[in-house]
Structure formats: structure tokens, C-alpha cells
Write a structure and sequence with these properties.
The complex is a heterodimer. In chain A, 41% of the residues lie in helices and 12% in strands. By secondary structure, chain A is α/β, with parallel strands linked by helices. Chain A is globular, with a radius of gyration of 18 Å. The chains are: A alpha/beta, B alpha/beta.
Chain lengths: 286, 318
Amino acid sequence: MTATARTNRTLTLGERAAFLTEKAKEVRSRILSMIFKAKSGHPGGALSAADIVTALYFDILRVDPANPRWPDRDRFLLSKGHACPVLYTCLAMRGYFGLEHLDTLRQFESILQGHPIRKTPGIDMTTGSLGHGLSIGLGMALDGKLRGKDYDVYVMLGDGEINEGHVWEAAMAAAKYKADNLIAIVDRNRLQMDGCCDDIMPMGDIAAKFKAFGWKTFEIDGHDMAQILRTIGKARRVRGRPACIVADTVKGKGVSYMEDRFEWHGKCPDADQLTCAMKEIWGEDS
Amino acid sequence: MRPHAMTPATVPTRRAFSERMAEYGAIDGDFVVFEADIGYSTFSHLFGDKYPERYFNMGIAEGNMVSAAAGMAADGRTAVASSYGVFITMRALESVRTFVCYPDLNVKFLSSHGGFTPAIDGVTHQATEDIANMTTLPNMKVLVPADTWASRKLFDVAIETPGPVFVRLMRDPILDLYEPGDPFRMGGSHVVIEGTDVTIVSYGDIVFEAIGAAGILAKNGIRAEVIDMYSVKPFDREGLLKSLDKTGALVVAENHQRRNGLGYELSNFCLKNKVVPFENLGLEDTFAESGSYGKLLEKYGLSRARIAEAAKRILGRV
């Protein structure tokens, strides 16, 4: 894989998707291992986002792990920062820092803090206090436009996170400034910390809401690699307005006992549960 | 060098700061300004009129404005975020703390309507807790110009200082104290009246009341030294100690809650370094109200007469 290009252009979409599907297995297994070792972390939302973040880091993003602050890089903000095990895993697997750091998640003096910070190589901005990522991404998108750069800014939001009014302040401003280099991806796993989104704070038709603010919107299966690649490609080509992809996902995806269970938002598996999860991820039960 | 003859100010500090900001647009072509729909009040429009492509009016949404300014500054650009103190330091406080101060970005705050200088607007628009909120944040520096020249110079100091800087500005013009050429620096202060009996420290609008208090005290044979502590954080430790070595008594008066303002910081400093008779004037665990600025100064204990009384009290000269 080349360091700096948006990658794998010579492969067919099916070949790229197959490659990413395999990568995502490794990402998921490393997510669970690191949370198990840290005895703390958020597996549910990291696993729901795993396919999309894998697609970004192993296919879509134009980044250079040897030069994390390369001015022309695409930016990625994990606004739902509690899902950072997926981000840390992808950064380590891309070579921003050694894989051994994954064992230090949330530990004293680790470069991998409980929520993402700029000190970590490859992280563009501190995130995790929910609702701010889209605003920050908008600032980065406007910065790129003023400098005449062609980079894209991707912001991943949770469907619980968008309860925050701050998100909608950013949504209206991004439309005003025609930030077509800004792509929001909503990880719609339908669960938030206290329960089902529809019970805690129903957001209704999320795509319609972004559309009403002036965004181009897409709705996809957030675990279908081919759809992820195709749709992000389309979103990148939108001109004159920002794009939002609402991705239907399953919280805890890939581990049967975690799937669709809000209790696994911020819970650590025990040793037996980890073994079971690894078998499921690598398909050894089938 | 002091005292200069004071003359009525023709523009408020918010305008003087923005005028310098508009000039700075030509010096740094990457410099950007964010506003939240009060650009004709903060006078940030003076920059926007000249550089519309670098002026972002984010509407009435201060939290988004500050977080977006952080994103804009993340790759090295310098940004000013402009609004009233109440909105920057409270509604947008988390954006200021977590996304500007924590990553230590070059976002500067044009914070108008400091203290109860928007007296007639009432409590909703009076920033009487802003110094407490901003000085508490790691990496944040806090500056308060008292007049036109100070505002222009402290704009430059804010820009030259790496990281976040909060500049508290006033709604209405009061007096001009400084002359072009007077120097300002981060962590500096000015002795605006020299004295030997008591030190009166203030910043912003209350500097003029402190000067007035020194006049009252002079008639009672008390020579007060008045310090304009325009750099509230970091403050001028050496300057303060030098003055206290002479006077041995300290009054701090500020247009702010008495709790957690500059007075609290200086009293803490004095307890550790130089214990002197001390008085701290500010809002006494209360909100102010609508009314003329002069009436509020008197009612809330910050007029020259009240400052002079405090000085006499700690000197045992009542």
C-alpha cells in the first residue's frame, strides 16, 4: 500500500471490499484485545464503526503515517470519541505508532488516552466531548478552502451524539459555507448509553434533518464494504454543499452477545467472553 | 512617565481593538475572524468589510463558532473569535476549554461588554464572572486594556503570544490614559500614579476609579500608588512586589465578582510572598442590574469614593 495516495485504485470494487472485510476482522479483534487488557473502554460503538473506519484508513483517506501533519492529508475526526479503540487500532495498523501501544489504552502516561487527543500521532483534534466534532471539522474544511487545498474532512458522529444542539449549529453553518469538502458519517447503531435512541431521545429521520439544513444525504448499510466505498466516493464528488452519510450499523457488530445490547456501550469482556468473541470474528465456529 | 493628562476617549476599547484587528488583516494574510452576529457591536465588521473571505459570521451560535475557530486554527492559522463576554465565557466555555485551551491553539478572544460596562443592558449581558472562568483555564492568558492605545497594543500582544488569549473589552468609551508609544507586554503592568502609602491595583474601566480614589486620598494626605494590571494572567509579580515594598498595603478593585477574580489571585500571592493589609472590592456574591454605569459603580462598591474608603480602612485612617 502506498503511503500517501487514496489507495487501491487498480483493484476492482469487489477486490477492495474483500480486502477491507479481512482487515476489519483484524481491527475488531485488536479492539477487543486492547479493551480487555485495559479492563476499560467502549466496545459497542467501536465495533459498530469498525467497518467504516477500516474503509477510511485502508482505502479512502489520503494520509501519510510517516508524516502525520502532512498539510495535504485528508482529515478524520472521530467525534464520537469514546469509540477511539477503533481509531487507535487503525492508526497503529497503518504505522502511525507501534502496535505495542495498543496494550496501553487508558493507562497512565500512555499516548492512547481515554478519549482522542492531538498528542497522539495521526489524531487531528481532541474529540470525545460529544457534539463538537462537526464544528471542528467545518473549521478544518474552511481552512482547506481558504488555502486552496483539495483535502477532504470526514467527521464520524454517533446517532446519540446528535442529540447535542451544537451539531445542528454546525450543520447550518456548513451549508451556509457550501463546505463540499466536509463529509459527515452518522454511525446509526440506534443505541445510546442509557438505552435505545428512540426511547432516550428519538431523532426521527436523520437524513431528512440534514437534508433540510441543505446537505446532500445518503443512507447505507454501514457494514457493507462495497456500499461504504461506493457511497463515500459519491459523497466526495458532491459540489456546492456538504454531504452526510447515515450508516445503519449494529452496536457490538461481529460479537453475537454484544450485538444490539446497550450494556456493551462501555463494558469490558472477561477472558472467556474474549475467547468466544475472537472465534466469532475469525469465523472459527462456522 | 506618569501621569499623562487624561482625555475623554472617542471610541470604546471594543472598537479600538477591532480597528487594530482590521489593520492586522494586511499584515497576516492567513489571519481569520469569527463572529456570532454582533459584528456591528463588537466592531469586528471593520475586519469583515476589508476581508470578507476571511470573516466568518456563524450566526447566533457561539459554541459552534469557537469549535470551528479551533478547527480553523488546528494547522497553525491564527483566529479571533468575537462575541460578548457572557457568551464566550459561559455558553461556549466547553469549546474554549477543551478545543482551544487543551490543544493550546492560536485562538484569541475579542470579548466585549466586560464586567457591568453594558450597564443598561442588564445582567444577561454583563460578564461579571468572565475573569474567573478564563483565568482558571490552563494555557489561557487574560488581558484587559483600559483605553484606546492599550487596546491596540494588547491586540498585538495577543497575536504575538502563542496559544489562546482572552481580551476583555468595554461597551462604552471612558477616558484615554496612555499615549502612542507606551509599551505593553504579556505579564506587564503600568504604575499610572506613583505613591508610597497604599497600592491600588485594578484593570480595565476600574483603573479610572482607582485614579479618582488616589485623588481623594491625596486630599487626606495619603499617597496612593495606582497600578493598571492590564495583564491579569499572567500578572506582574515583580511589579506588584516592588510596589508593596514601598507601600505595604493593597487594595484590589475590579468590575467582576469579588470571588475568583484578580483580587483572589493577588491575595493568595501575598499570603505566600508578602503579607500586607488587604482589601478586595468587587461584586459581593450578587448580580448587578440595569442602570447607568455610574449608579452601578456606586451601588456595587466600585466608585472612587468606595475605593478610597477601603484604602483608608486598611490603613486605619477612617
